[in-house]
Design a protein that fits this description.
Strand content of chain A: 15-25%
Largest interface: A-B, 29 and 29 residues
Largest sheet of chain A: 4 strands, parallel
CATH superfamily of chain A: ComB-like
Radius of gyration of chain A: 17 Å
Distance between the termini of chain A: 30 Å
Low-confidence stretches of chain A: none
Helix content of chain A: 25-40%
Strand order of the largest sheet of chain A: 1-8-2-7
Number of strands of chain A: 10
Structural class of chain A: alpha/beta
CATH architecture of chain A: Alpha-Beta Complex
CATH topology of chain A: putative 2-phosphosulfolactate phosphatase
Order of helices and strands of chain A: EEHEHEEHEHEHEHHHHHEE
Oligomer: homodimer
Mean pLDDT of chain A: 94
Chain lengths: ~240, ~240
């Protein structure tokens, strides 16, 4: 394949940098490994009918009542006050979530998703290690420009979302033109983290490791850093994430 | 030394993220390896009396005339129209620059410096590989919080400034509390780039490598990635960088 025919790939390391990238013609991949997009893939894989990502806790409660749906979400790593469930993939096994609608709000992931939509993104999917291969396979066959959008933590660049961007780039780089230092740094970080992403994450004492570990959530983190536990492709359509 | 007594260290990977950090009580290190802060260290090491960093080409010309100073700067990697000199450390040997005042404007570095000043930074120094050890030695003895501020490229995160942040962290990390994923990623990138930073930078086809290489500036880049060629500490005081 000639280099000039390959679509571009960029990585946006923080929502505060989103305005630098062309999101209108790209497939935008929303990445919030800990834990929004891991939980989205898991709930849909386990049979959830749809997930409605919302900006605020109030809206989550309002829409949840209106649709008789499950309300879920976190603020600062804990279940948000007034919501029923949290942001852990383990809260959504098939026997609980099958056929149900989940209304979800999180600190970073749902915020970035709405930023992308509000700024004119035409195609938005969500990615996490849980659905790594599904995302990669889709991006390769779509043959469109790609923007890997890291949700980060309150706009601060984080290791786990960057690692996932690196994992995607590792699989699909031959199909894209990548003139983007953030992407190259993400790939390098991913290679440096192999073979055990959770050990790397723990040994680095990443900010989110310290935050969630204090809540006893090591098992969540290890699960969220494991590839392909929920091999589905969540796509945003008319206000909902579906597969 | 007890952990609780160590000052904090953060890395800001792009000027667009500067608002996330407390710059008022930190030593802010402005980093623009290619090439503003490399040239600043070199010119001062070679005897320049002072360097006046300015925002715009027009202001550069105006102040240059007013002070009968040398005007220099670049836009997009080339000498800016209307200015006398560019942004290469090789343009400022001792026989030319000794005793002179240099008025300098660049695409990213001088912009970040003014952002920091305008937002209340009380202490600003400049860093590049050219003065790596001088910066590290100062930060260790200052015992204050540190913000490593990468100038990046038009707000996009770049490899070379992140690499320098990593090189600083590699030397001084034992003296600081670092709960900052960007810093950990920078350190990891630096380790990955050793032993030959320029080879790493070239092999990665970093954005700035491609940009400057197209202008035949490989020699500049290799020089700017070489540690301690200009062992001075440029400090910003009353509108001027001096040593």
């Amino acid at each position: 394949m000639s280099t000039t025919l390959k679509p571009s790939l960029y990585t946006c390391l923080s929502p505060a940098l989103l305005h630098l990238y062309d999101i209108n013609t790209s497939v935008v991949v929303i990445i919030d490994v800990l834990r929004a997009t891991s939980t989205i893939a898991t709930a849909l894989h386990n049979g959830a009918k749809e997930i409605i990502p919302v900006d605020s806790v109030d809206e989550c409660i309002r829409i949840g009542k209106q649709m008789s749906a499950i309300t879920a979400g976190e603020r600062d790593g804990k279940v948000a006050e007034g919501l029923q469930y949290g942001n852990s993939p383990f809260e959504y096994p098939a026997e609980f979530i099958t056929g149900k609608t989940l209304v979800l709000t999180t600190t970073n992931g749902t915020k970035l998703l709405h930023m992308a939509i509000d700024n004119g993104a035409s195609e938005v999917i969500t990615g996490a290690f849980a659905n790594l291969d599904a995302v990669c396979n889709y991006l390769i066959q779509a043959k469109k420009p790609v923007l890997l959008g890291c949700a980060a933590w309150k706009d601060r660049v984080n290791i786990e979302d960057t690692l996932f961007a690196g994992a995607v780039i590792n699989q699909i780089q031959d199909h894209f033109t990548i003139n983007c230092d953030s992407s190259k740094m993400a790939l390098d970080l991913y290679h440096s983290a192999l073979p055990n992403l959770f050990s790397f994450f723990k040994n680095k004492e990443a900010s989110h490791f310290l935050r969630l570990s204090a809540f006893g959530l090591d098992k969540d983190m290890e699960h969220c850093l494991t590839p392909n536990t929920a091999p589905v492709l969540p796509v945003y359509k008319e206000g909902k994430l579906i597969i």
